[in-house]
């Protein structure tokens, strides 16, 4: 039985590149298959019978972008509409994940934040955008923009001046 794809049957030159064409086909030296990314269907299946927690609440487009980033990082996530009973309240959507995936999503959000700071050119001269250090138990929390762990000066970071209070 011929296992060629329809495109390979129409164009014999494509048949030699069709991975379904031969059972003994291997990847050329230096090439590798494209890694499989988790799909929304995979995420729905993985999260169907487990406890879910909201990790973020935002507008629909932002929630979808975060879910796409989570799926790309192999973290199953779903968008859920949060019911709000207040009149005039804008629609809010939650990104739901397993409790054990919370730290991975937090790291993903932090990396996206650092990438955007770098892309916008907001990293102070002579510094690189690096993830913030963990919060010491008895010390000051690090600044989300520059990572400096020092007391605030009038509610702002003492290093970069980001207003935090």
Short description:
The chain contains 5 helices and 3 strands; from the N terminus they run H-H-H-E-H-E-E-H. It is α+β, with helices and mostly antiparallel strands and 165 residues long. Residues 8-20 have a biased composition (Basic and acidic residues).
Q: Please, could you describe this protein's structure?
A:
- The protein has helices at residues 6-10, 12-15, 40-46, 60-72, 102-120, and strands at 53-58, 78-82, 92-97.
- The protein is of the alpha+beta class.
- A 3-stranded antiparallel β-sheet has the order 1-3-2.
- The chain starts with 5 loop residues before the first helix and ends in a 45-residue tail after the last helix.
- The protein has a domain at 40-120: Alpha-Beta Plaits.
- The chain has 5 helices and 3 strands; from the N terminus they run αααβαββα.
- Residues 19-23 have low confidence and may be disordered.
- Residues 8-20 have a biased composition (Basic and acidic residues).
- Residues 1-20 are annotated as: Disordered.
Give the arrangement of secondary structure elements:
Elements: H1 6-10, H2 12-15, H3 40-46, E1 53-58, H4 60-72, E2 78-82, E3 92-97, H5 102-120
Antiparallel strand pairs: 1-3, 2-3
């Amino acid at each position: 039985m011929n296992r060629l794809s329809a495109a390979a049957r129409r164009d014999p030159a494509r048949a030699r590149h069709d991975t379904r064409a031969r059972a003994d086909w291997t990847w050329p030296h230096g090439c590798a298959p494209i890694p499989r990314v988790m799909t929304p269907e995979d995420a729905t299946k993985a999260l169907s019978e487990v406890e879910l927690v909201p990790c973020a609440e935002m507008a629909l487009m932002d929630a979808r972008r975060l879910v796409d980033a989570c799926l790309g990082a192999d973290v199953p996530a779903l968008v859920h509409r949060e019911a709000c009973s207040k009149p005039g309240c804008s629609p809010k959507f939650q990104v739901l994940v397993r409790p054990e995936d919370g730290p991975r999503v937090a790291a993903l959000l932090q990396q996206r934040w650092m990438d955007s700071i770098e892309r916008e050119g907001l990293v102070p001269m002579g510094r690189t955008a690096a993830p913030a250090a963990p919060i010491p138990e008895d010390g000051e929390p690090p600044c989300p923009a520059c990572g400096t762990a020092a007391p605030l000066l009038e509610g702002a970071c003492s290093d970069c001046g980001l207003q935090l209070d």
